[in-house]
Design a protein that fits this description.
By secondary structure, the protein is of the alpha+beta class. Helix content is about 25%, strand content about 35%.
Length: about 400
């Protein structure tokens, strides 16, 4: 498999990190479990043209087959009109290499920042390997696969992908109803598997018409979260980390979400904790019901899911209006300080996505990212609207770091 010659490999305890342009691999190991956080980016083909969707998914499938990995979570960022093409190429590649993937895919319609790279901005995969296999299975609701379930010891992770509103909620309904129905569907899945919404650590939410109804969406989310017991009046009891971004959804839906929930049994050595940002107020103070980050710790690693973060200050105001470079710098420094409060850094990134309002800002992001300690080769870059019209950049990141005993 071709790799950039500037690949960097780093091993810290039981964590191995390899960063290159076509493939970034972060591997964590504890006892007999190996976890892989993979980022596939398009590369040039032998003639210098864009890599085909077929070839990208062949690379994904080949790598997963090589490591005997079971997919827990998979997210593909690609041009909206390529959903059918991506689905077909993915199915062929996985079938050829014997990769089981039922319920794993979230397809997000996003415009790649580099047009010459083709239709796909990048693909993220979280996969696991155990000696006997069978740690991951389709997550079912009424016989239909809605995600993947990964169990190890006394802990299970439920990863739900591409969840939309109920089928009866159609074009004639208010957008508020679309969002409320989507959250109610999420709660139905949780209840069917013996969980509650308090068990959700992370959500990813995509709205094709983000700027035209984000306030209405937030009102629906607040209503749902009060109903589920996540808010006591205006005071939050528990809020997952979250990204809310523009993204086209398959089948013409008005909204779509992924979420990650955690089920703990008996003596499960796992803790989930909300993290506050040293440089930003909490999002619920200006009407958005999510936490800045959630940390998940087990006996051997700490992982932090940082919400989609933009150039917002301690008062909830947009700063550096009209200046994309300063918004990028401000955002990266906000994330750095949040991570450093738990002894993490941008260098511990396992999965990362950068959303720029204009693709022309991507080179500035790469330069500033390097200055601030984030290797841009491991970041998926897409062009998308952010939740405020004056916000020009947003970053989401998941970091992982071994715990020092």
């Amino acid at each position: 498999m071709a790799r950039n010659r500037n690949s960097v490999s780093q091993q810290k305890g039981r964590l191995v990190r390899s960063v290159s342009s076509p493939l970034t691999v972060v591997q964590a190991q504890r006892d007999d479990l190996k976890e892989y956080f993979l980022t596939f980016r398009p590369e040039r083909n032998s003639s210098g043209g864009a890599e085909s969707v077929e070839n990208i998914y062949n690379r994904v499938a080949e790598f997963l087959a090589t490591i005997h990995g079971e997919i827990v979570q998979e997210r593909c960022y690609a041009m909206a009109n390529t959903y059918a093409q991506v689905s077909a190429a993915r199915q062929r590649a996985y079938t050829q290499h014997g990769v089981e993937s039922e319920g794993s895919l979230c397809f997000v319609g996003e415009m790649p920042c580099e047009a010459e790279h083709g239709a796909v901005a990048g693909i993220q995969v979280w996969a696991v390997r155990t000696p006997k296999g069978g740690a991951v299975s389709p997550l079912l609701l009424e016989g239909q696969a809605v995600g993947r379930k990964f169990c190890y010891g006394n802990t299970c992770y439920l990863s739900v992908a591409s969840l939309g509103p109920a089928k009866h909620v159609c074009e004639g309904h208010r957008l508020h109803d679309h969002a409320l129905s989507m959250f109610e569907n999420a709660n139905r899945i949780l209840e069917a598997h013996g969980l509650i919404y308090r068990d959700v650590a992370r959500t990813w939410i995509y709205l094709p018409k983000l700027l035209s109804w984000y306030d209405e969406f937030n009102a629906a989310r607040r209503q749902a979260y009060r109903q589920f017991g996540l808010m006591d009046g205006q005071k939050p009891v528990w809020l997952p980390a979250s990204t809310g971004i523009q993204g086209d959804c398959p089948f013409g839906r008005e909204c779509m979400m992924d979420f990650l929930a955690i089920s703990r049994r008996g003596e499960a050595a796992l803790e989930a904790k909300i993290l506050n940002s040293p440089r930003q107020c909490e999002a619920f103070q200006y009407g958005s019901s999510f936490s800045r980050a959630v940390e998940i710790r087990d006996e051997s690693v700490s992982r932090i899911y940082v919400s989609g973060t933009a150039s917002i200050n301690e008062r909830g105001e947009t700063v550096h209006i009209g200046n994309p470079e300063e918004q990028i710098r401000h955002t990266l420094r906000v994330v750095k300080e949040l991570l450093s409060s738990r002894d993490h850094s941008l260098g511990d990134a396992a999965h990362c996505v950068a959303f720029v309002k204009s693709a022309e800002c991507a080179p500035a992001f790469r330069r500033i990212a390097r200055e601030e300690g984030l290797d841009p080769r491991g970041v998926i870059e897409t062009a998308a609207d952010i939740c405020r019209d004056d916000l020009l950049f947003e970053l989401e990141v998941m970091t992982i770091k071994p715990l020092v005993s």
